[in-house]
Amino acid sequence: MKQSIYCAIIGDINNSRQLADRVKVQRKFQKAIDSVNAEHCRDIASKFTITQGDEAQGLLISAANSYRIVRRFQDIMGHVPFAFGIGIGKVSTLLNPK
């Protein structure tokens, strides 16, 4: 199987359990994910999805627009504090585009 190089982005809401309006923030986060998936569909190999509580991850076909995508999340979420990680490397397993 040919291994391709991808760009993974993981975003996590900082101290989400301490947020007074956590449910509202989680709904806004899901809307942000839906927006990013729609707006950047040409860049995405595997759509962004919530993976653990208040964490989301997605896989891009390249790192070219990774900064723009992270900034888009931040723009949509406003003052909600986030930590983002970006990694580049090979993926040798089958991808689920959804």
Explain this structure to me?
This protein is 31% helix and 36% strand. It has 98 residues and is an alpha+beta fold. The chain has a four-stranded antiparallel β-sheet with strand order 2-3-1-4, with helices on one face. The radius of gyration is 14 Å and the shape is elongated. The model has no long low-confidence stretch (mean pLDDT 90).
Could you outline the blueprint of secondary structure elements for this entry?
Blueprint (H helix, E strand, L loop, with lengths): L3 E10 L8 H18 L4 E9 L2 E6 L5 H12 L4 E10 L7
Antiparallel strand pairs: 1-3, 1-4, 2-3
Helix pairs in contact: 1-2
Q: Into which percent range does the helicity of residues fall?
A: 25-40%
- Give the helix tally: 2
- Molecular shape: elongated
Question: What's the order of the H and E elements?
Answer: EHEEHE
Question: Strand percentage, roughly?
Answer: 35-45%
